[in-house]
Design a protein that fits this description.
With 699 residues, this protein is α/β, with parallel strands linked by helices. The protein is built from 23 helices and 25 strands. α17 (451-461) packs across α18.
Length: 699
């Protein structure tokens, strides 16, 4: 099929003369000519003649496509919602970032792992974009390998596949060698490996190797690449960068401290896409960011909520001009870059404004709050907390960013330190006290506490048996708590760490260690506090805490955004009739956005998701937390709990303990989360152990 010039194609012709690259339909239509024709006709309002020109087919064929699409149910009252949403967001990403093309796969119910869906979409794109005679540079990573494993590109000739970075003898399956080999096999291409390690021990060795004639010739081929395929890595604790083993000789904290947010082809970038200078720059053998940007077509395949900052940075830096991602990530990228909310139009929308609608009499642009000086909000809040809960906790110093329990620390006991950003009250100060955490470090709103307060907490609770750190799995928290742990170890205080990862919507099951810690923190803090209070040794306290975390399952649902005190503006957008499943406690994108539904339907969706992973059976016992995100009242929380109890009861599951209320909020966000702790005898004993904190007490 040859696409004839149309107005849409003419408008795109100025993008580095790349429009001639595409003689097939745009990627966002997913290799489906029926959807392409329907979109142009129903959404873009083009005539059948214009569509025939755009698609390179006859007008009769266009008419046949439209008729058959109605018969097949692709078009009824509207295009099937998941396809429509993905097409819309792909179109907006392409426009907003001036991309050559974009393919967005619909969000689903986790029936298939995200990496499989991205691999399939990337393969589909590669099969259409790769031409005979191309030289393609291939980076490494799990997603790139998934693309190679699913690509079948018959009929290509004289394709050269060149490894974009040096190699490794690591045991993981997504090495640079295997990723390049998988693409070469799929396209029956000539494979050029880089005959050197990706990371060498010194700049002198790197320079010496690059002067070797063989490696010099391989880099000359790499410099001739006209296409590139790569993934984008975040810097979360379970990212490819952390688990690859490539960077064991340096601390990633060097890059995090320089505000790195992601990695493209082994190179670190900040939030604006600017290269980060660090200890690996002169020791890396592989494609540079400048070389990458000189390649004509740069295909990035990446998805997942945790990668939003990294993908956004790569787009801002111009490293990708074709993006393959998923719908939830795509919306997160657009929201993070301040793009207008993606229009979820009905196919048969009205063509003229409805003059009968009366505009609202009052249009508010800011949220009203009880504030003095907005920049002092955290310090003034902490001042109030210390005064209101003086019986339970007191500050270690005048800053009040490090609070210690009055009846917690004691000699011969493992100390427990928790912490996180402000804005989640009563998390985290509410879980400090006898039988709970011994101290808490508190950061600015939605920001990690610095290493200093964490270290002061550690020293204050050290009773000679070591200290256990428990906190949410966020890059900033990981960096600062790890720095504090190193400083504490240098002072002779043994430290063990457990990251909470209860948000099952934030990553797939196979990526459990990469999930966020959210309201299920309550259960993990409680179990950890009981283990420490009972005098167990540090190793056992860590083991029991990890067990509690592994058996805790949380899904959050957002109805309305929260608003920041400094701006009094909402920090993300959601439609008046929409609801978002899987929303994070900082406003991170959820798994899917849908039309508002009843409380029972919402609860059923959450419980079904939890059951799919928890695998409960009749006779099991659980603890339940129904938590408000801040603005949702108890009335609605009890309606949700009512349905949770019905669903658990119908399966023969006993609720041993429950909490309903504000336990881990997100400022004034309207929404709620449901957490379930799958109990056994050991965890039940620890959960029932007496505790006395500012907002949690068990006699």
């Amino acid at each position: 099929m040859t696409v004839k010039p149309s107005q849409q194609r003419k408008n795109a012709a100025g993008k580095n003369n790349l429009s001639e690259t595409f003689d097939a339909m745009p990627l966002r239509y997913g290799d489906d000519p029926y959807v392409w024709a329907c979109w142009l006709y129903y959404e873009d309002g083009m005539t059948q003649g214009d569509i025939a020109d755009a698609m390179g087919i006859s007008r009769a064929t266009v008419n046949s496509y439209l008729a058959e699409a109605r018969e097949r149910g692709i078009v009824n009252i509207s295009i099937e919602p998941a396809r429509l949403a993905s097409l819309t967001v792909a179109q907006e990403l392409k426009r907003h970032f001036n991309l050559v093309d974009c393919l967005v796969v619909p969000s689903d119910d986790n029936a298939r792992p995200l990496i499989e869906r991205l691999g399939g979409a990337g393969a589909q794109a590669l099969q259409r974009l790769l031409k005979s005679g191309d030289t393609i540079a291939v980076a490494w990573g799990r997603t790139v390998l998934a693309v190679g494993e699913r690509t079948i590109a018959a009929g290509l000739q004289d394709v050269t596949v060149v490894q974009a970075t040096g190699g490794t003898r690591a045991s993981f399956v997504y090495t640079p060698e295997l990723c390049a080999s998988s693409i070469a096999d799929a396209v029956t291409g000539k494979l050029i490996n880089i005959s050197a390690p990706a990371i060498v021990s010194s700049a002198d060795i790197r320079d010496m190797l690059l002067r070797e004639p063989l490696i010099e010739s391989q880099f000359e081929i790499l410099s001739r690449a006209n296409k590139a395929l790569f993934g984008i890595s975040s810097l979360r604790p379970n990212s490819t960068i952390h688990t690859s083993g490539f960077f064991e000789s340096v601390s990633l904290q060097d890059y995090l401290a320089r505000n790195a947010v992601g990695v493209v082809a082994g190179r670190f970038i900040d939030g604006h896409g600017r290269p980060i200078s660090g200890p690996l720059d002169d020791r890396t053998i592989g494609i540079s960011l400048d070389m990458l940007k000189n390649i004509k077509l740069r295909i990035a395949v990446a998805g997942g909520f945790d990668k939003v900052p990294a993908i956004l940075a790569a787009l801002r830096g111009g490293y990708a001009n074709v993006l393959i991602t998923d719908a939830a990530t795509a919306r997160g990228i657009l929201n993070a870059d301040g793009a207008p909310e993606v229009d979820r139009r009905s196919v048969h929308r009205a063509k003229a404004d409805d003059q009968s609608v009366t505009p609202p009499a009052i249009h508010r642009t800011h949220v009203k709050k009880f504030l003095n000086i907005p920049d002092n909000v955290v310090d003034e809040m902490l001042d109030g907390i210390v005064k209101a809960h003086a019986h339970h906790l007191h500050p270690i110093d005048k800053s009040r960013r490090a609070l210690v329990a009055r009846n917690g620390p004691r000699p011969g006991k493992v100390g427990l330190v928790i912490g996180g950003g402000a804005g989640h009250e009563p998390g985290f100060y509410g879980y400090v006290g006898k039988g709970l955490a011994d101290a808490v470090a508190i950061g600015n709103i939605f920001s990690s506490p610095p290493p200093g307060p964490i270290l002061r907490c550690t020293e204050a609770v050290s009773g000679g048996e070591g200290v256990l750190f428990v906190y949410g799995n966020y890059a900033g928290d990981v960096m600062n708590f790890e720095m504090a742990a190193e400083m504490a170890e240098a002072k002779g205080i043994p430290v063990r760490t457990v990251l909470t990862t209860d948000d099952i919507a934030s990553s797939s099951l196979e990526d459990r260690e990469g999930r966020r810690g959210v309201a299920g923190n309550l259960f993990v803090f409680k179990i950890a506090g009981a283990a420490c209070d009972l005098g167990f040794p540090l190793a056992k306290c860590e083991t029991l805490t990890r067990k509690a975390n592994a058996r805790t399952y949380t899904v959050g649902v957002a109805l309305e955004p929260c608003s920041m005190p400094q701006t009094r503006l909402q920090n993300f957008a959601i439609g008046p009739d929409e609801i978002e499943f899987g929303m994070g406690i900082h406003g991170e994108p959820g798994v899917v956005r849908e039309k508002m539904m009843t409380a029972d339907a919402i609860t059923d969706r959450v419980i079904d998701r939890i059951f799919s992973e928890m695998k409960p059976v009749t006779g099991d016992r659980v603890a339940v937390l129904v938590n408000s995100f801040g603005a949702t009242p108890l009335m609605e929380l009890y309606i949700l709990f009512r349905r949770v109890e019905q669903r658990l009861g119908a399966k023969g599951i006993t609720i041993d303990a429950n909490w309903v209320g504000h336990y881990c909020t997100s400022l004034d966000m309207a929404g709620a989360s449901i957490s379930i702790l799958h109990l056994d005898d050991e965890l039940t004993t620890l959960l029932n152990h007496p505790c006395d904190g500012a907002t949690l007490k068990i006699n």
